[in-house]
Amino acid sequence: MSAPSTPVDTVDPGGLAAALSALREGAPLVQCLTNVVVAQWTANTLLAAGASPVMVDNPQEARACAGVAGGVLVNVGTPQEETAAAMTEAVAGAAEAGTPWVLDPVGAGALAWRTRIAHDLLGRHAPAVIRGNASEILALDGGTGGKGVEGVDAAEDAMPAATALAHELGCVVAVSGRVDHVTDGERVVRVSNGSPLLTKVTGAGCALGALMAGFTAVVADRLVAATAATAVFTLAAEAAQRAARGPGSFAVALLDELDRLQPAAVADGVRLS
Ligand SMILES: Nc1ncnc2c1ncn2[C@@H]1O[C@H](COP(=O)(O)OP(=O)(O)OP(=O)(O)O)[C@@H](O)[C@H]1O
Ligand SMILES: Cc1ncsc1CCO
Ligand SMILES: [Mg+2]
């Protein structure tokens, strides 16, 4: 199947700005089952943007937490038996409560066990959003994956796979890269904001997935939610790049700029096609 190319219609800059206002007003609780590399930075990203993180990734509490959270992030970056069991529980809790959940299939394709975990979770209850780099999205559709957790494909090359997954699961698929591509299987939104420094710090994509879980808690249209997260994150990255001397100061500045970003600046600065 070829990728759809319907131009942006309902996803407009004003809607993305309104989504950021909704995130700040709602301050949703976002449960994160994420990897050990990025946990603290992910929590800080959510706080800076205006959401409320809680990193509950044990099988004893994950289901109950997903029942009360506004959104759930499941990121398979450093899976262990315990956290994999917790992911199953969290997805069950999300299914019971109708809580939107986001899958970040870190390293899918490159490593077999986590690829099976991702497929198993997808088979239990459809996520609101699958967010990954192009190689990870291709891997979920039968591809071979990237170089470890690094993507080696361009986002546009993953759009046939993203479209197929979106149709199969009834979810949004967000493919990150120089130009981020977001689709619900019918509509495609491209966001061309961002900074190359995002590829020089670990966990940018992981933090973006957490933001998507936050936006799905406050925005009903999941295409808008995933696009708003992308716009907010990449616009903050552009401002952070201006303040940074390199990856270290960039990562710190990105938190500052997420906190400072105003909804009007989202509407003014986002580059959609
Ligand atoms: N070449 C690039 N130029 C500018 N921005 C980029 C580039 N590649 C990725 N990005 C941005 O970096 C962020 C993370 O995307 P990326 O594709 O690197 O995710 P990822 O590989 O899943 O990251 P990680 O696994 O390290 O968390 C996105 O906001 C995306 O817009
Ligand atoms: C570096 C790394 N290894 C496993 S998860 C992770 C964070 C970026 O995906
Ligand atoms: Mg990733």
Q: Can you tell me the CATH superfamily?
A: Ribokinase
Q: Give the spatial strand order of the biggest sheet.
A: 2-1-3-4-5-6-7-8
Kindly state the mean pLDDT as a whole number? 95
N-to-C terminal Cα separation, in Å? 21 Å
CATH architecture type: 3-Layer(aba) Sandwich
The CATH class, by name, is: Alpha Beta
Bound molecules: adenosine-5'-triphosphate, 2-(4-methyl-thiazol-5-yl)-ethanol, magnesium ion
Estimate the global geometry from the Cα principal axes: globular
What is the number of E strands? Answer: 8
Largest sheet: 8 strands, mixed
Radius of gyration: 17 Å
What is the third-level CATH name, the topology?
Answer: UDP-N-acetylmuramoyl-L-alanine:D-glutamate ligase
Low-confidence parts: 1-9
Secondary-structure-derived class: alpha/beta
Order of helices and strands: HEHEHEHEHEHHEEEHHHH
β-strand percent reads 5-15%
Instruction: Specify the number of helices.
Output: 11
Approximate helicity band: 40-55%
Pathway: Cofactor biosynthesis; thiamine diphosphate biosynthesis; 4-methyl-5-(2-phosphoethyl)-thiazole from 5-(2-hydroxyethyl)-4-methylthiazole: step 1/1
Keywords: ATP-binding, Kinase, Magnesium, Metal-binding, Nucleotide-binding, Thiamine biosynthesis, Transferase
Protein name: Hydroxyethylthiazole kinase
Enzyme class: transferase
